[in-house]
Amino acid sequence: MKQSLFFAKTRKESPKDAVAASHKFLLRADYIDQLAAGIYTLLPLGQKAHQKLLKIIREEMDAIGAQELLMPALHPKAIWESSGRWEVYKGEMYQFQDKSKHWFGLGPTHEEIITAIVASRVSSFRDLPVALYQIQGKFRDEARPKAGLMRGKEFIMKDLYSFHATKEDFDDFYNKASEAYLRIFKRCGVEAFPVLASGGAFTKDMTKEFMIKTKAGEDITLICEHCGWAANKEISANVSKNCPVCKEKVSEHVTLEAGHIFHLGTRYSEKLGAFFLDENGKRQPMIMGCYGLGTTRLLAAIVEVHYDKKGIMWPESIAPFDIHLLALGKDNKIKQEAEAIEGHLQKEGIGVLYDDRDISAGEKFADADLIGIPLRVVISEKTLGQGMVEIKYRKEDAARMVTRGELINIAKADLNRVNN
Amino acid sequence: MKQSLFFAKTRKESPKDAVAASHKFLLRADYIDQLAAGIYTLLPLGQKAHQKLLKIIREEMDAIGAQELLMPALHPKAIWESSGRWEVYKGEMYQFQDKSKHWFGLGPTHEEIITAIVASRVSSFRDLPVALYQIQGKFRDEARPKAGLMRGKEFIMKDLYSFHATKEDFDDFYNKASEAYLRIFKRCGVEAFPVLASGGAFTKDMTKEFMIKTKAGEDITLICEHCGWAANKEISANVSKNCPVCKEKVSEHVTLEAGHIFHLGTRYSEKLGAFFLDENGKRQPMIMGCYGLGTTRLLAAIVEVHYDKKGIMWPESIAPFDIHLLALGKDNKIKQEAEAIEGHLQKEGIGVLYDDRDISAGEKFADADLIGIPLRVVISEKTLGQGMVEIKYRKEDAARMVTRGELINIAKADLNRVNN
């Protein structure tokens, strides 16, 4: 893709209210555009990176036997009343009337909807377990949106729901989902760890949050480095300074929440009529779990872990392109060589952003550092003279000269490593 | 995918209010679930078919140089006021206040948002043209939702917007987009033809609708079979019975609208400040076009063209699976053979729904006809005895016996044909 045709315009300055690194750099490198406080567009660069993230999430959800569907965002009041949450969610859910004076809410979460869908299709223990997920725009009436994609009024989420005949089966799937989450974070280049948390408006039971250690985090987590026990501050208010398991000293960390998984028990299945006949023919409510992961939030969290003062340093698995190809100088031979290399790489399935713009070398280098594509390739009079190209990884300092054939092999090997 | 694990439950009856074939069959075969009038979930079968449709649309959009982004659904009142459409869209757009008493609307279309995005990034004729599209849930306060996915309060749409320096450049892209639409419809197995139409709330200019001839259509179109002139009833009110071009007799058709493309001129660019400097350094408003295609609506339209009294007959390009594999009988050898074939086909990248359920052969055949996967493969005692499998295309009457090797080759050839 020629950068002169690509819809992205980098900026030297970011708005004053942008404090978090991800907010600043995603705006400056033109991954996102702010429409209003907490409301953003994913521009072509952002859309590409987000789609790569979604591909990883879908693969890991499918691998644990979850099936994808897509539920609506417009929810009639009645179904939220049957769970008793229409009133509870006032102030957090956008609620309004259509022109026929019927009330609707914009779904901030989908327990009611999914439970009704499963209730009308599952009748026997033989139909269970069921695990269904969606990737969808979500809406929350957030009074204080902040930090760009981190906390908004509209955002994208992967939400998974599971239904089980027994607590053992639920526990088994809960563990599988937890492991899938850890694999997702690892493949996205961030290290997350599960901590005990409270369930907020969802449940009174203990839940599990997945936290990423970053400077832009908003939660305090207590961690016992000795035995691995971890909990958020709310849970551990009574813990003082010692681990409740091994009695060793715990330490405080600022970390960012990236996912949250819940044991919902039979709360929703009882209220929405999701019953089944067990092996003895006895009518039982299904046992439920729900598993949330904010995908636009995770995109921002990845940047919080991978940046330096010059800009973003994407992990290869998420970068919008694999290679940033810079042609320096006006000589036609340079352009011809760059185009030949671009064509060759693309034929191998390697994504290339080719900077063909008529601007200075300094501006091209600065943009490449800001946008953060993992491998930078430079073609200039100097490299042409040597019959080589210059390559440099965004995360490394040293550049080196390689032949065109070597470049292709390196790029193919990098791509293979990410895909396998 | 084993059907015993797949989340879909077919029904013998459809709701009384379901009149259109697509509405009836998509409900009965469990592609969709109705939450409220005009509000549906895409269940796993529906999600799979819809994703295949989106892949085709993305390929054709990318091929004409359009780039994908994703805009928000929550729009602040101010931006709709700058175009003068906040009042115009009352009654059609859901409009409400957040808890800070700020007004928002749920975007039924995105001219205002995209124009503001482009305005802040394009300054010179050198930056033009720009073509951007998104695939996104849309909301319209529809008083009389009907026919399932055909006309709803919430639906999914591909909307493309283009920005140009000259009318010639706009015309050129408008024709390219029009051809891309025709390719999309063809690849989805429906024949669409462009007709002249009015612009509704969008524009006073003439526009182009893409109509599909179906029994479930809601618009009358006049067509001149002689010279090819075509227009919708509204436009052609003055035409009486003769073509305005060649004076031959025109005929009336009930057809379904599947896409709509507009010349917006400089209406939005002037109001939202999307100006550029032309070659002479003169400030000019950009010339705009917009190009809509309802993707969930198109999914229904495809069914309207491809069904018989037993159910859906998907085109290969859209079907949720390529092959429906039916194992008949309880003999373990039948199951072993079916599983071996499923594994073999999947290794070749062929999507298989394997009906391993403990129900009668009659029920399996009826479900296969209803769900509408293009190729049915049966393994039974009879086929095992002959060392063969029975295959039958959904659109053909005759079944025939082939060897396992022949089946693989046939399935691979079918898949290749669709992909190229």
TrEMBL record, chains A, B:
Source taxon at top rank: Bacteria
Entries under InterPro entries matching the protein: aa-tRNA-synt_IIb, aa-tRNA-synth_II, aa-tRNA-synth_II/BPL/LPL, Anticodon-bd, Anticodon-bd_dom_sf, Pro-tRNA-ligase_IIa, Pro-tRNA_synthetase, ProRS_anticodon_short
Any one GO biological process: prolyl-tRNA aminoacylation
Gene Ontology MF term list: ATP binding; proline-tRNA ligase activity
GO cellular component terms attached to this protein's record: cytosol
Aminoacyl-transfer RNA synthetases class-II family profile domain mapped to chain residues: 17-315
Catalytic activity of the protein: tRNA(Pro) + L-proline + ATP = L-prolyl-tRNA(Pro) + AMP + diphosphate
The EC number(s) this enzyme carries: 6.1.1.15
Keyword annotations from UniProtKB, A to Z: Aminoacyl-tRNA synthetase, ATP-binding, Ligase, Nucleotide-binding, Protein biosynthesis
Enzyme class, spelled out: ligase
Protein name per Swiss-Prot or TrEMBL: Proline--tRNA ligase
Organism: Candidatus Terrybacteria bacterium RIFCSPHIGHO2_01_FULL_43_35
